[in-house]
Amino acid sequence: MDADLRRRYNITEENYYEMLEAQNYKCATCKSTDPIGYRGSDKFCVDHDHNTGKVRGLLCNHCNRASGLVRENR
Questions:
Q1: Residue 3 phi, psi dihedral angles, 5° rounding
Q2: Which residue has the higher pLDDT, 43 or 1?
Q3: Given the DSSP bridges, would you call strands 55-59 and 45-48 parallel, antiparallel or unpaired?
Q4: Is the pLDDT of residue 72 over 80?
Q5: What pLDDT score does 38 carry?
Q6: I want to staple 11 with a disulfide (CB 3.0 to 4.6 A). Which of 2, 15, 22, 74 is the partner?
Q7: Mean pLDDT rounded to a whole number for the chain
């Protein structure tokens, strides 16, 4: 997981878990504690700006997909 996080988002696994703790182990959007992971994953999705690469937080799969569908960039 750590190598993938570093490559895709320039964060460490420790950063991921720090964000998750800061969000009270909930999706940043809907506040669900269930990541409803893509293809059986039990991890929240890393929400990021596709233009700048800046990480915004962690989302459940449903909120991540919804955000992508509306091409949301906060």
A1: -65, -40
A2: 43
A3: antiparallel
A4: no
A5: 65
A6: 15
A7: 89
**Could you write out the three-class secondary structure of the chain?**
CHHHHHHHHCCCHHHHHHHHHHCCCCCCCCCCCCCCCHHHCCCCEEEECCCCCCEEEEECHHHHHHHHHCCCCC
Residue 25 structure tokens: 């182990």
Tokens 């906060």: give the residue: 74
Q: Which of 10, 5, 12 is nearest to 53 (CA)?
A: 10
- Which candidate, 41, 16, 38, places its Cα nearest to that of 63? 38
CA distances from 26 to 3, 16, 58 (A): 23, 13, 8
Report how far apart, in Å, the C-alpha atoms of 6 and of each of 14, 15, 42, 60 are: 11, 10, 19, 20
Are 19 and 2 within 8 A, CB to CB?
A: no
How many C-beta atoms lie closer than 10 Å to residue 28's C-beta? 19
